[in-house]
Amino acid sequence: MKYLVIGAGGTGGCIGAYMTEAGKDVTLIARGAHLAAMQENGLRMETTKKGNYTVKPVKAEDMEHYSEHPDVIFVCVKGYSLEDTIPFIQRTAKPETVVIPVLNIYGTGGRLQEKLPGLLVMDGCIYIAAEIKEPGCLWQNGDIFRVVFGVRRPEEYRPVLADIKKDLEDSGISCVLSDNIKRDALRKFSYVSPAAACGQYYNADAGEMQKPGEIRDTFKALIREIDGLAKAMGIPFDVDVVETNLNILDHLTPEASTSMQRDIRQGKSSEIDGLIFEVVRMGRKYKVPVPTYEKIAEALKKQGF
Q: Is the peptide bond before 57 cis (omega within 30 degrees of 0)?
């Protein structure tokens, strides 16, 4: 199958690198210096699991020059850039193309489906700690690399989804074809949202959150508030989500941080609205107390966010 990955940062770039290395037909959509470096020198991977190596050649284009019609599109941009991808997807997709958003913001697939009514748009999420180190180079931190995706309604299932799962697994990427993607995507959100909120509030990386004390306790309190929302939404988690997320956190290197924190530090646009302020809105909608989120949201708004 022909794959297109929109966004070549830590999420999309790693998917593209692993699948290219495994011989899959993948094109990465990027721009600027990062794109130029990949086109000239390939994609340099620096990892704690597989060591350092370069995937070369790697197919990389910008939106303007890409002219193929893929079978599968992974959307791996930040939430604030999602709208920019819609005209491009409309131009390049075939009627049978499957679109899999892999974003931090909960509910992205449903919102994107409304804008792309003729296509199958799924929901998805990813577990990975990775980022662009410099143009043409990604830093993958830690061992975890798992993609979860699925249809929101059983009648939308297609046999090709099992083929996508196999291609990911053939590429060394752990993959779950979920039978309850709303729950599983919210479960991922129950990690990344508290990690981003806690990390930004305390200006803390993973190392500070791994130590017993106030910061770790706040992280756990935020997870419990998401757990309460999940129950009110009718999609309760099937695991102890606090224990599960602490296990994820504790397997990161101490310097790991969320992409939202890194974007804010670099003065870029960030996903702070979807990761933090949206939870406060969800609490009001479902009448679930989220006092820790409210405290952090109020403090961040006073800082000008």
A: yes
